[in-house]
Amino acid sequence: MTESGQEHEYLTESGQLHQQPTEPRPRRPVAVVVLVATAFIVAVAIGVGTRTLIPSTSDRVTPSLGDPLSSGRTTASNSTSSDINVSRIADTVNPAVVNIDTTLSGGGRAAGTGMVITSSGEILTNNHVIVGATDITVDFGGTGRTRSARVVGYDVTHDIALLRIGNVSGLDTVTPGQPSAVSIDDPIVAIGNARGQGGTPAARAGSVTGLDQTITAGSDTSGSFETLHGLIQIDAAIEPGDSGGPLVDADGKVIGMNTAAAVNRNFQVGPSSVGFAIPIDDALAIAHDIAAGHSSDEVHIGPRAILGVQVRDTRSGVTVYRVEPRSPAGDARITEGDVIVSVGGRSVNTVDQLTTAMGTFRPGQQIRVTWVDTSGRQHRGQLALVEGPPA
Fold first, then answer.
1. Looking at the structure, do residues 291 and 341 belong to the same domain, yes or no?
2. How far is it, in rounded angstroms, from Cα 31 to Cα 222?
3. Whole-angstrom distance, CA of residue 388 vs CA of residue 173
4. Mean pLDDT over residues 177-201, rounded?
5. Are 19 and 125 part of one and the same domain?
6. 20 to 30 A Cα–Cα from 60, which one of 35, 52, 292, 351?
7. Domain count, the chain
8. Which residues on neighbouring strands pair with residue 239, listed in sequence order?
9. How many Å apart are CA 212 and CA 9, to the nearest integer?
10. Are 138 and 121 in contact (CB under 8 A)?
């Protein structure tokens, strides 16, 4: 932990994996869960930890499943797989589902799921599926038809990302349903690239067990968390790799995007009967903003500009704890222990402020950076930003 009590795991100063909102929300009981992308990472040192196996780019953290799991409306469910035709629904939805495989900036690979939302090749997924990705490949419904995809934009706060495949047309697309019409005990099917194994997406039946849920998802390597609101809770056995996949109702319409699952106190990885999905209308609203190029403090469009440092909050401010070799920061002789105080004319006192400021810049742009070294001496430099992987 840092002096401020919270440590941020970064690829660069604007590359936070997961962060606590700057303004605390009213205290409500929350579930602490794992985001369900899978990451197969071999000795990849990112930030303060080294990850070696699954489950995810966000990793694992939770209290006992006997603890209060979430806020919102919940109840026990008696629904069974006999309430819904799983194979029929899977056959209907799978042509618009893609398995996502990524190559990470530090080495290794990660996997998740996506949904085709336009016939011209736009794909909706979770932001944590593509964090740190330098190369993204999608496989259509386990058919073996693979294509490269690029990141159009993303929203870290709401865990949404939009990908695009070039030079395609006439693709099958998912059919959105109405999350507002969903009720507790409604039967559902959760579909995804379970454990990143590829092939035909896995389909698991279950039921809705909660609405309007608030959860906290975090990393056991970085100690940082993010809070998501308004989620649908389900009892289908979703697994790592299912992130970004469709949550489907009995009519074969997508009502949500699988995003998180609870794990036990020992961080055991496996099918979870406590899962959570972002309502599809919320996810699509953000995706449409991204597609339209509407950037904001939360929505980032296009390639990300970086300085090439890893930072954390301390009492001194935004403190550098690693400088990437051959980076703009390295060329400017920013070193470990230096404190960044302004970028592009904007003062920054916290990592969140630095992340927001960096989100307004583009690769190739030159900005003035001010920092204070460990002896207290202030420095200024003009740095040309370079392109980095998604935050």
1. no
2. 18
3. 30
4. 95
5. yes
6. 351
7. 2
8. none
9. 29
10. no
113-146 pLDDT, tens digit per residue, is: 999 999 999 999 999 999 888 899 999 988 889 9
What is the average pLDDT score of the chain?
A: 79
**Same-domain status, 149 and 280:** yes
CATH of the domain at 272: 2.40.10.120
Nearest alpha carbon to residue 236 among 212, 267, 203, 214: 203
Q: How confident is the model at residue 27 (pLDDT cuts 50, 70, 90)?
A: very low
Q: String of b and e for 329-354 (b: at least 16 CB within 10 Å)?
A: beebebeeebbbbbbbeeebebbbbb
Question: Letter for the amino acid at 115?
Answer: M
| CATH code of 382's domain | 2.30.42.10
DSSP 1-36: --TTS----BSSTT-BSS---SSPPPP---EEEEE-
Separation CA 159–CA 260 (nearest Å): 11
CA distances from 235 to 232, 248, 271, 349, 371 (A): 10, 13, 10, 42, 50
Structural domain for 24, as ranges: 1-302
Using the 3D structure, point to which of 302, 333, 357 is the last residue of a domain.
Answer: 302
Q: Are residues 130 and 171 in the same domain?
A: yes
* 225 within 8 A of 20, measured Cβ to Cβ: yes
Which pTM value belongs to this model?
A: 0.75
SS3 state of residue 238: strand
The answer for residues whose C-beta is within 8 angstroms of residue 167's C-beta and 6 or more apart is none
168 shares a domain with 36: yes
Spatial distance between the Cα atoms of 108 and 46, rounded to a whole number of angstroms? 11
242 & 144 share domain: yes
**pLDDT, average across residues 335-345:** 95
Tokens encoding 306:
């970086």
Write phi, then psi, for 7 (nearest 5 degrees).
-110, 140
Does residue 287 carry a pLDDT above 70? yes
271 and 309 fall within a common domain: no
Question: Residues 180, 203: one domain?
Answer: yes
Terminal Cα distance for the chain, rounded: 21
Cα-only R_g, the chain: 21
Boundary (domain end) residue, out of 302, 336, 351: 302
Answer whether 380's CB lies under 8 Å from 369's CB. Answer: yes
* Token code pair at residue 58: 């966000």
What is the pLDDT confidence band of residue 41, given thresholds at 50, 70 and 90?
A: very low
